[in-house]
Design brief:
By secondary structure, the chain is an alpha+beta fold. Helices cover about 45% and strands about 10% of the residues. The structure holds zinc ion (2 copies). InterPro entries: CxxC-x17-CxxC_dom, Zn-bnd_dom_prob.
């Protein structure tokens, strides 16, 4: 089966866009019955709108695996972006920070204070999953 580029009209903005031979092959492969309805900008706009505001793919991935647990140091409830392994200590951000070298703590302090802490979350995960010395 031969495919040639086709010109389609976007249902959202009414602009014309090219349904390329490659894309048609992809649709054919996936057995999609309908032609694409929207141009790429409109499609990505809709995909972006369905995400929570300010939540990038990384943030969405983190919140999916967020686990509620208690800090094994001070006992307060905290959430960690990974499944705690049994027998491994889980630290809240504060305790985790106090155990890190001051340089690292200083570098991540601002992020932690803002409670976004993507850097320190990764560090927590790395520390928790690293074999104990
Ligand atoms: Zn469009
Ligand atoms: Zn703690």
């Amino acid at each position: 089966m031969e495919f040639v580029d086709r010109l389609l009209t976007c249902a959202d903005c009414g602009g014309e866009f090219i349904f390329t031979a490659g894309e048609q092959l992809f649709f054919f492969d996936k057995q999609f019955k309908n032609d694409p309805k929207r141009c790429k900008p409109c499609k990505s706009k809709r995909a972006g709108a369905s995400l929570r505001p300010g939540a990038g793919p990384a943030a969405a991935g983190l919140s999916r695996t967020e686990t509620r647990t208690h800090c094994s140091e001070c006992g307060i409830e905290t959430t960690v972006p990974f499944k705690p392994t049994q027998g491994r200590p889980v630290l809240c951000r504060q305790c985790f920070q106090s155990k890190r070298a001051p340089a690292v703590a200083a570098a991540t302090a601002e992020l932690v204070a803002a409670d976004r802490a993507p850097v320190s979350s990764e560090l927590i995960a790395a520390a928790a999953q690293a074999p104990q010395a």
